[in-house]
Amino acid sequence: MSSTTVDPTVGPAVDPAVDLPQPSAATVLARTCRAEWSRLWTVRSTWWFALATAVTVLGLGLVLGIDVSDAPPDELPEGTAWRGGSITSTFGLYGLLALCAVAATADHATGGIVPTLQATPRRHVLVVARTVVVVAFATLFGSLVVAGSSVIVLGFAPEMGLPVDVGADFLADVAYVYAASTLLAVGTGLLVRNTAGSLVAVLGAMLVLPLMLALLPFQWAVDAAGLLPGTGAMRLLAGEAPVPLSATAAGVTLGVWAAVAVVAGAVRLVRSDADR
């Protein structure tokens, strides 16, 4: 019977796949979030969309402030300076939607999704990290520039005031709409995997279809407009929508659309070939 001699200076062989400690799920998620943050800012379109959104929102705040400053005191618009932010927030929303749709589809368009998944083979971790990073940034950034536009209006019309309690309620609505809407954009991007197609689908559901259906002389079209996410977003941001809708119904409608979109996008990324 033959025997195996083990060199004592070398020691027994070690299988790294078995014996090396594996990183925890939290560690992998944190690393992936850092990678997604870096990827977000290496895409040139992120800078352009962020700049365009800030210029649009703050520029409109400046225009509104100048317009208010020229009005006689007895003709000032009703409400506080936060009213200016509610007007500019609707325009800022569309820039954020474009930013998120492009961020979700950029590496599918370039083929970079293949090395991305080689570095992060746990696809559900990639879905969570990409969604959290993109949506969190868009929501925080959008809320800040909307608050900034309200401050600009206040600078031209200090008599309008900027009460904290009103601002807290208003910015909470803005943050919810921005978070749900950008979640919808990211989910659509993961599902469609095409930048142009994602932009058309998201902007159609958020802007074009609600306005178009509400103008048609058919009750079914008006009812359909009330079920679209863009109608809910307009109601919460501007206080009015193309069709009558309560704030609760608007929030639920927008939230359901966002949840369905991100689940559908996640399922496709996890279950199907990433380069198709």
TrEMBL record:
Protein name: ABC transporter permease
Domain of life: Bacteria
Parts of the chain that traverse the membrane: 47-66, 86-106, 127-154, 174-192, 199-222, 242-270
Gene source species: Nocardioides renjunii
Alphabetic keyword roster: Membrane, Transmembrane, Transmembrane helix
